[in-house]
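Section 5: illustrative case.
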């Protein structure tokens, strides 16, 4: 049984199930500011609903960004605590791939997943989706919408899915001539599905030193560096 976690966006989601299977239990909560306090109770509720304890878990799979800096840290911290305590495997998938693989209606072929990166920029990644496999054609990047469109045009994008201002999504749709799809209501069930697709997830080998792919520094770090005119020094014991 796998525990799936996704807190990369506004909606936190948890799911319990077998790789590639229908969740035996799931929960979701909208509102990014509630993720820190709600994630562990959501996990406990899913375990009770599934009728199992943490000892029955085989591993944890989570969306590792890019996305909300705070949200990603919340899921990463909880996943590390459970996995290290229980000796569980941990696997990750890009949050942009989660959007592409969970698009509504379901898509096959080349899909562009996007997410608002603020400051007039987008996170973007391109994936070829097949029934049993995923191929990453463009790993997540952060760039202006116009530059992203130019970069992905040669890849033959057939559909666009994501969370970004409507004018930006409309412009991408028009520029690429691609179908507009809706993002999944929750990412955790999609992560369970990706476990069964070749190239869908990647193992975390050094969990103690692993961090999510934030995409860019936190806003607080950016403001500190602008104010002081130099990079923020690493915390004690941290390398950068």
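Designed sequence:
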């Amino acid at each position: 049984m796998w525990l799936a976690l996704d807190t990369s966006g506004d909606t936190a989601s948890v799911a319990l199930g077998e790789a590639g299977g229908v969740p035996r239990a799931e929960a979701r909560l909208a509102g990014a500011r509630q993720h820190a306090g709600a994630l562990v109770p959501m996990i406990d509720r899913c375990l009770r609903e599934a009728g199992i304890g943490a000892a029955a878990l085989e591993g944890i799979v989570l969306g590792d960004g890019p996305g909300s800096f705070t949200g990603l840290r919340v899921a990463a911290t909880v996943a590390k605590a459970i996995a290290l305590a229980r000796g569980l495997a941990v696997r990750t998938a890009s949050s942009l791939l989660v959007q592409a693989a969970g698009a509504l209606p379901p898509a096959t072929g080349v899909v562009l997943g996007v997410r608002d990166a603020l400051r007039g920029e987008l996170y973007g990644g391109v994936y070829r989706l097949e029934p049993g496999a995923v191929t990453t054609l463009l790993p997540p990047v952060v760039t202006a919408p116009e530059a992203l469109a130019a970069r992905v045009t040669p890849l033959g994008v057939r559909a666009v899915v994501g969370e970004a201002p409507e004018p930006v999504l409309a412009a991408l749709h028009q520029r690429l001539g691609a179908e507009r799809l809706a993002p999944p209501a929750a990412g955790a069930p999609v992560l369970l599905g990706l476990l069964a697709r070749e190239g869908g997830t990647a193992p975390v080998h050094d969990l103690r030193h692993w961090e999510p792919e934030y995409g860019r520094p936190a806003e607080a770090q950016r403001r500190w560096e602008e104010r002081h005119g130099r990079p923020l020094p690493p915390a004690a014991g941290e390398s950068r």
